[in-house]
Amino acid sequence: MDEFQVNIFKALAHPVRLKIAKRLSEGEMCVCEMNEDIEFSQANLSQHLKILKDAKVVNAKKCGMFMYYSIKSGKIKELIRLTEELYYEKE
């Protein structure tokens, strides 16, 4: 259990992967669509997506020549939202 949790947090700890997860929170999309917003090569983006997939943060499905990604669980979206709330919370 601990290792599973650590893998999720490690996957989301990288700024590019967090940006990808936030973008995918809006809905399923292919790498070519994500590549428009993220300033890395498609190969680099695909490496980050593999890490997110291996950590069970995102799902991937192939449709023709394109690979589509989506957030695996609404709980991931909630986790991202909760961290944003922590940032804005006043002590």
Secondary-structure element series: HHEHHEEH
Overall average residue pLDDT: 90
Number of domains: 1
Corresponding CATH architecture: Orthogonal Bundle
| Helicity level | 55-70%
Shape: globular
Largest sheet: 3 strands, antiparallel
- List the strand order in the largest sheet: 1-3-2
> In the CATH scheme, what's the topology name?
Arc Repressor Mutant, subunit A
Total helical elements: 5
Which structural category fits the helices and strands? alpha+beta
Measured by DSSP, the beta-strand proportion falls in 15-25%
Strands, count: 3
Give an overview in words.
By secondary structure, the chain is an alpha+beta fold. It contains five helices and three strands, in the order ααβααββα. Strand 2 and strand 3 form a beta hairpin. The chain is globular and about 50 Å long. This is Winged helix-turn-helix transcriptional regulator. Pfam families: HTH_5 (PF01022). Residues 1-91 form the HTH arsR-type domain. Keywords: DNA-binding, Transcription, Transcription regulation.
Explain briefly what this protein structure is.
With 91 residues, this protein is an alpha+beta fold. Helices cover 59% and strands 15% of the residues. The longest helix is centred in the last third of the chain and has 15 residues, at 74-88.
Keywords:
three-stranded antiparallel beta sheet, alpha+beta
Give the helix/strand layout.
Blueprint: H1 2-13, H2 15-24, E1 29-30, H3 31-34, H4 42-54, E2 58-63, E3 66-71, H5 74-88
Antiparallel strand pairs: 1-3, 2-3
